[in-house]
Design brief:
This protein is of the alpha/beta class and 218 residues long. It has 10 helices and 5 strands; from the N terminus they run H-E-H-E-H-H-E-H-E-H-E-H-H-H-H. Helices cover 50% and strands 10% of the residues.
């Protein structure tokens, strides 16, 4: 459940509710807009974890949307809290991911937040991806991860390269606009976009459609 907030009080309340409902865990986005310092970010996540000590938490670091980067050193401190078990790392920064892996325990899971960086994240000791493209090619992404884990790096690379144009076009503008458009092109009824999100421009929609056709997805 996504129970994060830029208000610690609100995040605690939503996370406690999710835990009581019996959900598996919580995705905790870095507080957005108010841009707290690293010490404030640590205290924010520490308080949420303390309020639901038996509920697994995944940090979500996405500076492009929040305006604030959760530094590797802060993630390493948070990884010492027993129920903070993973991070969705969406910086697309190899140096950042390398530092997180170097500073955190081996059982702390690192997931890519960008499909284009999944294979690289695995190579740096990551566990997988919280994926957009899996709505369309989930089985192929699973095959890529499995191939890598089995030491079949050439096979994993070939799957990555095959899917790479899809990974890129799905980020041609703000999500969920491209992925909802792609699902609609496949015939799924996914509902309209809510304002201020708006329809994909015709030239980008044509580009998206071309990639889907190339991959036999429509």
């Amino acid at each position: 459940a996504g129970t994060g907030s830029n208000s610690t009080e609100e995040a605690i309340a939503a996370t406690e509710k999710a835990a009581k409902l019996g959900l598996d865990g919580s995705l905790q986005v870095v507080p957005y807009y108010n841009k707290p310092p690293q010490s404030g970010l640590y205290k924010h996540f520490q308080a949420i974890a303390k309020s639901s000590p038996d509920f697994p938490l995944m940090l979500y670091n996405v500076p492009g949307r929040t305006g604030q980067n959760l530094q590797p050193e802060t993630i390493a401190r948070l990884a010492q809290i027993p129920n903070i078990v993973a991070v969705k790392e969406a910086t697309s920064d190899f140096e950042q991911t390398s530092q997180i892996r170097r500073l955190t325990p081996p059982d702390f899971a690192i997931y890519s937040g960008d499909d284009s960086f999944t294979l690289a994240t695995l190579a740096l000791g990551g566990s997988g991806v919280v994926s957009v493209a899996s709505h369309l090619v989930g089985s192929q992404i699973q095959q890529m991860i499995q191939a890598f884990e089995e030491g079949k790096t050439s096979e994993a690379t070939q799957i990555h390269l095959k899917l790479f144009p899809l990974f890129k076009v799905l980020f041609c503008t703000t999500n969920p606009i491209p992925i909802k458009t792609a699902l609609e092109l496949q015939g799924w009824q996914v509902g309209s976009l809510r304002s201020p999100l708006c329809e994909l421009p015709s030239e980008l929609k044509s580009r998206l459609k071309e990639v889907l056709i190339e991959l036999d997805l429509i």
